[in-house]
Design goal:
The complex is a heterodimer. By secondary structure, chain A is mainly beta. In chain A, the strands form 2 sheets. In chain A, strands 2, 4, 5, 6, 9, 10 and 11 form a 7-stranded mixed beta sheet that branches. In chain A, strands 1-3-8-7 form a 4-stranded antiparallel beta sheet, with no helix packed on it. In chain A, strand 9 and strand 10 form a beta hairpin. Chain A is globular. By secondary structure, chain B is mainly β. In chain B, strands 2, 4, 5, 6, 9, 10 and 11 form a 7-stranded mixed beta sheet that branches. In chain B, strands 1-3-8-7 form a 4-stranded antiparallel beta sheet, with no helix packed on it. Classes of the chains: A mainly beta, B mainly beta. The interface between A and B is medium-sized, with 23 and 23 residues.
């Protein structure tokens, strides 16, 4: 079945770096935009970034622009998020989610189970 | 950025009740509105896309309506498994944005 599995979360000090991964299975990975979406503890959902199937189109939320880099390896069915200059406010569960497009409409489905990133000294 | 505002932020209801959650966009988003359900410790799960289309496998007691700036999610008869947090999300333009969530609790 269609599945996304995140990994790479952990505890990192402010100013530090971390690389998240998302492994995809059950669908043609290169056909889909994939997104990173995060959720701070006890808070709502914040969209972070997306990358097109070919990797040629990338978009970032202002809150992470210049610090985070999204990339993908279609040969490995994998998505990545390189996070630098981490701040306490980046503490969150990070989800990867497939963007399904039908006509002019699109939505996130499915989502991975998430990986927790904690930025603290 | 398009701001999404849900009301109420929390709601207490009983099994069998009919419940409506409202989502308002800061500008017109046509029907580019999705709804997700999230249970504690789990990832969000798609319920409705394009404002009113039920995702495959989602029970028919869930329905969505609206266009422009005002949208609603209705659960016709609450079941025990429906107690969760619900989020709306606009897919009209990037950055994609979510409502703050509505937590549905058992009365």
């Amino acid at each position: 079945q269609v599945q996304l599995v995140e990994s790479g979360g952990g505890l990192v000090k402010p100013g530090g770096s971390l690389r998240l991964s998302c492994a995809a299975s059950g669908f043609t990975f290169s056909d889909f935009y994939i997104n990173w979406i995060r959720q701070a503890p006890g808070k709502g959902l914040e969209w972070v970034s997306y990358i097109s199937g070919s990797g040629s189109t990338i978009y970032y939320a202002d809150s992470v622009k210049g610090r985070f880099t999204i990339s993908r390896d279609n040969a490995k069915n994998s998505l990545y998020l390189e996070m630098n200059s981490l701040r306490a406010e980046d503490t969150a569960v990070y989800y990867c989610a497939r963007l399904v497009v039908r006509g002019l409409y699109n939505w996130f489905d499915p989502w991975g189970q998430g990986t927790l990133v904690t930025v603290s000294s | 950025d398009i701001q999404m505002t849900q009301s109420p932020s929390s709601l207490s209801a009983s099994v069998g009740d009919r419940v409506t959650i409202t989502c308002r966009a800061s500008e017109s988003i046509s029907s580019y509105l999705n709804w997700y359900q999230q249970k504690p410790g789990k990832a969000p799960n798609l319920l409705i896309y394009a404002a009113s289309t039920l995702q495959s496998g989602v029970p028919s007691r869930f329905s969505g309506s609206g266009s422009g700036t005002d949208f609603t999610l209705t659960i016709s008869s609450l079941q025990p498994e429906d107690f969760a947090t619900y989020y709306c999300q606009q897919s009209y333009s990037t950055p994609y944005t979510f409502g703050q969530g509505t937590k549905l609790e058992i009365k």
